From TrEMBL:
It is found in: Cytoplasm. This is Sucrose-6-phosphate hydrolase. The lineage of its organism: Bacteria, Bacillati, Bacillota, Bacilli, Lactobacillales. It catalyses: Hydrolysis of terminal non-reducing beta-D-fructofuranoside residues in beta-D-fructofuranosides. Enables the bacterium to metabolize sucrose as a sole carbon source. Keywords: Carbohydrate metabolism, Cytoplasm, Glycosidase, Hydrolase. Belongs to the glycosyl hydrolase 32 family. Pathway: Glycan biosynthesis; sucrose metabolism.
Amino acid sequence: MTWTREKRYQPYGAYSEIIKQNLEKKVATSIYKPGFHISPTSGLLNDPNGFSYYNGRWHVFYQAFPFGAVHGLKSWVHCISDDLVHWHNLGIALQPGDQFDSHGAYSGSAQVIDDQLFLMYTGNVRNNDWHRSSFQLGAWMNKHNEITKINAPLITAPKHVTDHFRDPQLLKINDTYYALIGAQDKQNLRGEFSLYQSDNLKDWQDMGYVQHELGDLGYMIECPNLVYVDGKAVLIFCPQGISQDDLPADNIYPNVYTIGSDLDFDTGEWHAKQQTIVQLDDGFDVYASQAFNAPDGNAYVISWVGLPEIDYPTDREDWAHCLSLVKQLKVVNNKLYQLPVPAMSTLVVAEQILLENQQQLVAHAGQQYELKLNLAADQTGNLLLVSDGTEAHSLQLKFDTNEAGYLIVDRSNVGEKFAIAYGETREIALNTHQALNLDIFIDHSVCEIFVNGGEKVMTLRFFAPQQQTMIAFAGQNTIEYSGSYLSLSNM
């Protein structure tokens, strides 16, 4: 199908039930469909929204266009979980098409207020000349997961921003509400954090831009998130168009974090001893992450595993993208650590296979498993995943725990090529002469690699033949290691 603008933005009612059912049947047969990652039943998935805990369950929504692997008229699809691992898809929850979201219900967040869940999101509106207006909107969800929109904007874009004004994070600090919104300043076309304040969720005061010393953050900030982790304030966001001098990055758009002592909501000042930004994920495909502070005292994050303006092989199958695993956040030595949640262990379907020092780890691993490895210091090697036993058909993890100290993820030979303009390898530095700990999750077309207890995470998509199932070390040199292999079930 040729996706004209008219087709992308026609009402959902224009699609018959037969069309919807056929799309879902087609997508369900994809060999690349993940088993334990949230993925769309059809069409496109992008930003996670409304990540929250309400009414005894975890909730996450994702931005969706259910009718093709393209960006069109966006809705929110609702998923719920009892443990942050097993997610149940409830279908479309927040429908677009009203006066202030006529061209899409875009990203936003959620807060539990009294006995309801309050959703704050961006409504996208286009006029006849296709000029965009964005509105920050609200909706209430009750305990039956029924959503009622508020029929007037909470916040209309101020005159000092362009039409790039979106992705509100709703925060409640004591008895006051704040909204942190990604913006582009109209005068200098730079990315900014807009801050708003309200006592009642109806009347919002513009507090101006957050004042920081993080430097030039490009031409737009998307998906701002403020969370508190181990006594530190952590700001997670996506700076589009940031200079390579300020943040060397290979992805088309980065997802970053910075750690401070606090955001002063009275003055709008970001307080931090070190005004630096760091990649949230050092892999290929993480964007639009959403984090929140949960009632259990932990902070959690979930990400879109996909990037804007990139074509993926599943586009031809009428679906695209998935969400990452939920990760628990920690701050250690002023670094943000990301850890798989403990409930991931409930996916294990067989007794773990212990591994030690053999060249071929698992001959028939399948493509749905967890691999834990402890690699000794002072050695180099190449771990082959999703492999036929050769480097020519493998996802490669090249490591040096000796003098050079590096880990390189190379997806150039794992299957179908895509996004090669942005490189086929990603590299992180390792401490020299120290052991390397890896916790790797493979899920058909998704790989998440947790390095040294979550100090670094490298996430990527790959699209390989399903018969490539071997895990082995390349070459003949003996690698000193220990570890385990665990087969994982669907969520």
